[in-house]
Amino acid sequence: MSDSIKKVSIIISKGSLEGIYPGLIMANGARAEGIEANLFFTFFGLDAINAKRLDRIKVAAVGNPGMHMASLLGVLPGMSAIATHMMQKKMEAFDIPGIPEFMEMIADSGCGMYACKASADLFGFSKDDFIDQVQDIITVGEFYLKAAGGEIIFT
Amino acid sequence: MSVETVAGVSLDLNEEGFLTDPSQWNEDVAVALARREGIDPLSERHWEVIRFMRHEFETKGAGPSVRMLAKTSGVPIKELYELFPKGPAKLAAKIAGIPKPRGCI
Fold it and tell me: How do the pLDDT tens digits run along chain A, 155 residues long?
């Protein structure tokens, strides 16, 4: 199988639960297949590796047609928390790990984890703000070097 | 699908090299399959995982994915990837002669 995928670099740019999980599942799944993988967190995606925020990631209740309810209801206080709670219960039932455990798992699988320098500068984050699994804060140029020879997936 | 003779046994293999008939498996076959995947020799720890995969398949009808494998076998994820760098659940299943685990996580 000479045309099989050997390496993927996945960019996570969103900070909502539904914005973060797909990239994590794809990175973890790549490693499980023996595919080399890197995760690159940028913009609001930095919340996924923010030590103070990663266990409080929420589902977007507003502007999310997938919620199947009137957008006006989404602005009610606590709506996002309720949606998140429901989603987490469902995920637990299917044995999908929470984000902190998932991050640990993915790092243990040998996946690279990097934060975007431009975004970290913009939000005033340094390496100390991120979980230990984050190897480095890198520039977009350094990202392309790490991604060389593989597929790039933007989420 | 192909038929290959490995360790003196005629094996039915699918496109990815997994045994389609787990009853054709024995420990010599495991050693030969592992060698083809670049794992040589198999350590006692490898065997622990391989036997565990077979046991799971025999009792539950399917091998576990990586997270479940780590949780139930007690071998941590980090070590699983050191033992089977090209994908622990996938490779251990292949060497154990059982179908590829189908979990996404």
Answer: 558 899 999 999 999 999 999 999 999 999 999 999 999 999 999 999 999 988 889 988 888 888 888 878 888 888 888 889 888 898 888 888 999 999 999 999 999 999 999 999 999 999 999 999 999 999 999 999 999 999 999 99
> Is B48 part of any domain?
yes
Q: Is position B69 within any domain?
A: yes
The alpha-carbon gap from B88 to the nearest alpha carbon of chain A, in Å, equals: 7
Minimal-distance CA residue of chain A relative to B84: A34
CATH at residue B28 = 1.10.10.370
Residue B101, in any domain of the structure: no
Contact A108 B66 (CB under 8 A): no
Provide CATH code, domain A7-57+99-154. Answer: 3.40.1260.10
Q: Mind telling me how many Å the CA of B75 is from chain A's nearest CA?
A: 12
Q: What ipTM is given for this predicted complex?
A: 0.89
State the Cα–Cα distance between residues A103 and A123, nearest whole angstrom.
21
**Based on the structure, what is the number of domains in chain B?**
1
Domain that holds residue B76: 2-96
Q: Do B105 and A95 touch (CB under 8 A)?
A: yes
Read off the pTM: 0.90
Residue B30 located in a structural domain: yes
Nearest-by-CA chain A residue for B76: A108
